[in-house]
Amino acid sequence: MSRIDSAAPPEANPLVRPPDRPDGGDGPGHFVRASVVMGWRWMTRMRTALYLLALLALLTLVATVVPQQPNVPGTVESWLAGSEGPGAGISRVLGLTGAFDVYGSAVFLALLLLLFLSLTACLVPRIRAFVRLVRHSQPPLVRSVGRTDLTAHLVTDSSPDEAHAAAAALLRDRRWRVRDAGAPDAPGRGTKPAQVAAETGLWTREGGSLLFHLSFYVLLAAIVFGQLLTFEGQRGLVEGEAGFVDTEVSYWSYRPGRWWGEADHRGWRMDLDAFHVDWVRDPLAPGAGQPTTFRSEVTITPPDGEPYPAVIDSNQPLVVDGMKIHQLDWGYSPRLVVEVDGEVVHDRFLTAQLGDGGAFYRTAVKAPGADPDVGLDVFLYPFAPDGDDGRPQLTGAPWDDAPVVIVSQYRGNLRLGETQQTINELDTSGLELVGGAYLRPGQTVEIEGVTVSFPELRRWVGFQVSDRPQIPWLLFGSALLVGGLILALYAYRRRLWVLASPEPGSGRTLLLVAGRAFQRPQAFEEEHARLVAALADATGATPATPVAPDEPPQDPAPAGSAAGAGAPSTR
Amino acid sequence: MSTDQLASLSRVLYSPTTLALYLGAAFVYLYALTTTVGRSAERERGRRAQRVGAILAVLGITTHVAHEIVRGLAQERFPLGNMFEVTSLMALVGVAGGLAYLQFVRKRPELNGFVLLGGALLLAMALLMYAEPGPLQPILDTWWRHFHVSLLVGAMGIFAAGFVFNGLYLLRDTAERSVAAARTATTRGSTVGAAYVGDLDTGDVPTGSSVAAAGGPHGDGPDGEDPEGEDPDEAAERAHAAAYRAALRAGVPAVKLAVGVFVGTALVSWVWLVEADTLAAGMQRFLTVNLVMVAAALLARWFVPFLPSTATLDGLAHRTIAFAFVMWTVGVIAGAMWAEQSWGRFWGWDPKETGSFLTWVAYAGYLHARATHGVKGRKAAWIGVGSFLVLMATYLVANYVIVGLHSYAEL
Prior knowledge:
Distance between the termini of chain A: 25 Å
Number of strands of chain B: 0
Number of domains of chain B: 3
Oligomer: heterodimer
Number of strands of chain A: 22
Low-confidence stretches of chain A: 549-571
Largest interface: A-B, 61 and 61 residues
Low-confidence stretches of chain B: 190-229, 404-411
Mean pLDDT of chain B: 82
Strand content of chain B: under 5%
Helix content of chain A: 25-40%
Order of helices and strands of chain B: HHHHHHHHHHHH
Radius of gyration of chain B: 23 Å
Radius of gyration of chain A: 38 Å
Structural class of chain B: mainly alpha
Largest sheet of chain A: 7 strands, antiparallel
Helix content of chain B: over 70%
Strand content of chain A: 25-35%
């Protein structure tokens, strides 16, 4: 059997395929054709796949070490600014090479394409060979048993034909592919000795490997179509306040796939009744300060049905009409009322978010209705009990047992719509700081002619609503992947030959049971012993000591007699 | 018993008890390994030593399991919540799985010592990350998590056993190659005389050393009968075998090995330099880890002559890694399913996910390399060793260095 050694020079290897057409001469057409053929050959090589896998590992390594824009935009920003990471200069180079968004970069896309091209190039010939194999291959007959084969010798009173039939039946029972060449006119036997040849494991192993590799197409298709068909939206809700309806306009952040349409929304309504959160409050207890509960109690109203209550827990999303609702984020929601000259310019619940460092929650009041605009920079400390001096002692504890709101008042131009600003941050470039104060719930203060009151503190929860029709397909692809992998690594190809021949002079029959495993020789050694024992059982045979263990019978009538009992002789 | 008492009991069960038992068992087994080349009386002593080693190992596994249970009781949760617990369980799975595989499946108990030594090293490494028992964040305390993390941690432990086998393979292969090269050199490049190791330093003692060249006179089977037992030239044979062993050991340059292992470990252990509060503390941990690894490698080098054939070691590495690879694959998929359940997205390329994917790709590369002509063997084993470094580096980096990105403090 010729083997192609990719490490050896080409002249040391036989031609894979003789050139099937005469040299097309030169010219651009020939060059292109030759390049394509060469490229394809290069792609079919396992070594290429290894290089590509190494490149994939390298890119992934970069993405592990360098912060990624889609995951942590803030960290990327501070890398680029030089306040974190290796410095602004290196970060700029990283940015130019696309290292901050590896999985969105053209290099990654190209690599993915090459990987799938290489996979296809590897699989096409393998699938063809596999189909050919399944259709046409039969276990090969042997002329003699090789030195590397496992052998055992038996002797029985049955005739050779009976012994062959018994062996064939036994192996068929165990789902081997059996070729019974006991008869002299058996096809393909020629001058080879009478035998039963059997093979198993090849289809399973190679089939498993193909299944494993084909599962990547299923996964890829699921991911690509999933990107097109998926929907993900986010929306915050304050406890007890009006909820929202699943329509395009009601989401704060809206990320539909290209093929997602307005008609795909289900139109249910969700209201947040209560949000429960708790922590390990004992400062001396292990895990002090860690949260222990996140649970939302909501009411769902289907578009044409009765409202019903539901619960969303930290590992238990709510499924409504195929859409999954998760808790994504939460914060405190102070209601702040701002009056200027007796006129209310702001009265609603704010959605304060956890600030840097996690000790406080931060939000902002933007009241363009006043003249000039009123802006409040709001800091909320959930647990700030009064100290000895009667002033709040700010702690980092997150539970709202003694909340205090600290506001800094700005007047001027909020520049709403002019600059990009988040709802929890003021753009102070057009504003002037005029004063500040702190409030407990129920308190009212006046700062430079503006009355601020803090009647009530609630909580808000950020929900994510998603529709991912690709999930079942991803699960299917994963199942194929794991199943194929197990078969490819654990099934093993092995062959067995049972050669029965009459023992000269005694009228008994000698059985030679030879086996060869292409993988997992240890596992086969045990299996071979079991098969020999089963065959001895089926034919009423006893172990025999061959005369010349290293010289297996070259023809149906071996010389010498060996009826003596002894241990089954394995090599 | 109070929680505090349980906690301190679990601590004592872990270190020194389990650590000492593993180390003791490892050294007893390693001693037994050296007797496999001795006379039959010596081998009988080796067999007895193996029995002692087995008792110590079983005791060690028992106290290790007891530690996990007591710790679980102390904090009223499954002990898989932080780096210490994960590394500890990784060692437990590696030791129990590796020993069971060697003992019952492959029937090669003489290699148990190396698995136990690796387990003891992991155990000691976990002590660097020791954390007092405590509760788990609610988002972590689910059936999904236990399933997903147990699979990955189990796979990590078995990958560690595969790393040990790959390392031993590379040591043995290096030794055999340099002995073969020395032979070729003494016969001026001709391979005709290569079958005679006698040229090396015992004078001209013609022997059936093709047996020796294939895997050491007796290194391949502890219970094999001594073929030269009845030989009148037994003394010469023994001297020759000892010379061959010395040549094998000398075939692995100690300084190069030490430097290589130091640098290789540094690829992972730099994390402690970065993570520690002060440079001195970080340097202390960094140097401790590196020097312990160097010491372990030098110890393994001493046992090179007693190792089984490279084919056996390669097979062991492949089967263990293949098993762990399946576990890892299922574990990563389970992680994606949990992420979809918990965070509302199945894959987000965060450092943990990226790290587990990187490890998967690296080990996929190893499995493919083993099936590639011109790469399988030595190069594939290097890829296997590199994959384990990737595994450990991403495990530590994603937990220590990029802390905050994968924080569970928020929803």
